[in-house]
Amino acid sequence: MIIPRPRRMTTAGGSVAFREDLLRLMPDDPSLHEEGYRIDVSPAGIELTAGGPAGRFYGARTLSQLGPAVPYGTIEDRPRFAWRGVMLDVARHFMPKTFVLRLVDLLAEHKLNVLHLHLTDDQGWRLEIKRHPRLTEVGAERGGFYTHEDVREIVAYAAERFVTVVPEIEMPGHAQAAIAAYPHLGNDPSREIPVWSEWGVSEHVLNLEESTIRFCQDVLDEVVELFPSTYVHVGGDECPVTEWERSPAARRRLAELGLRRPQDACAWFIGRMAGHLAEHSRRLVCWDEPDRDPTPGTTVMIWRDERADRGDNEVILAPHTRTYFDYRPSAGPFGGRPAADPGGTTVRDRVLTLADTYAFTPDRTARGVQCQLWTEYMPTPELVEFMALPRMCAFAEVAWGSPGDYPDFLRRLDPHLARLGAMGVRTGPLIP
Ligand code: ACM
Question: Domain Glycoside hydrolase family 20 catalytic: where (predicted)?
Answer without folding.
Answer: 81-401
